[in-house]
Amino acid sequence: MNNRYSTDLPLISVIVPVYNVEPYLPTCIESILNQTYDNLDIILIAATSSDNSVAICDLYGKNDDRINVIHREAKGLSDARNVGIENAEGEYLSFIDSDDFISLDFIETLYLICKKYNCDIAQCNVMKIAFDINDPILEENPESLKTFSGIDMCYNFYNELSLSTVVTWSKLYRKKLFEIIRFPVGKLHEDVATTHQLFYLSHKVGVTNKKLYYYRQVETSIMGQPYTLKRLDGLQFYEERWRFFQERHEDKLSALTLYRYATSIPYHLQQIKKYVPNSQIIQKSLKLKCRSAYIMIIKNKNISIKYKMLATLICNFPNLTKMLVLIKHLTLGKQI
User: Fold this and answer.
1) Residue 16: beta bridge partners?
2) Of 147, 188, 244, 253, which is least packed with CB atoms within 10 Å of its CB?
3) What's the CATH number where 28 sits?
4) What's the pTM?
């Protein structure tokens, strides 16, 4: 191990994909450098950018020997994260998006959860912030902490913990979880493809309600862009997640995921009709998928009558989709 790591605390690698984020990048990097836990291996994957993002990475790399700047062609978020994993020296990993930032005790809090409760993953809560916020917003809510098995953690995709659960970046992971898991290169919504697999491999996961990760949705983010067919990657990953649980005979999780998959298809159909010209073949394919998944919902003994009725409305009356999707997200939980 490099001599720069001179503490008895385990080394933690923090992986930051960087691409065209000049206005936000210094805030992100500073929040990592100033962590109360300082035995860090900070990996900046500096993709070729049209702004000064790469130069900013290089400047910080010269001034702090904990930083490793890796220059890379712009091949997407998944590629950058995978490069970070392969170059990480730490016993634990964390991923930070370069237009976000973290509380100064983010790493320490999550590490102590892993250590105290022997967790493979620790997760914090997330605060959505405006694009021009650059300082932590302190909350005085009492802290609560729960531990889950990896399987039980997967249920949190479908309840009030869904935002902080599905994403990659609100967590600290034992590096060993990534021995066989990588992010799908060239795809959007890569978190949906991987997070359930990481939980499934985990013995225990610790979750704190403390909002230690500050997430800003800027216009250049994926979700800030107009709808394109690339958004169908997320639908593909929901289908893959459903099959993942089905193959492992996790019947309730399979039912939850099937319901989410099927009732998401009408949204994509509406968006494609609105924004994608000459898309009749794709629309027909999605309608067939929706019909097939809907039939499986009706036959599934792990889905209640209430949710079968909701699926009937969402899948067969797409003009009601916007209202019904809101109801779906407000009500979806373990008892489907």
Assistant:
1) 44
2) 147
3) 3.90.550.10
4) 0.90
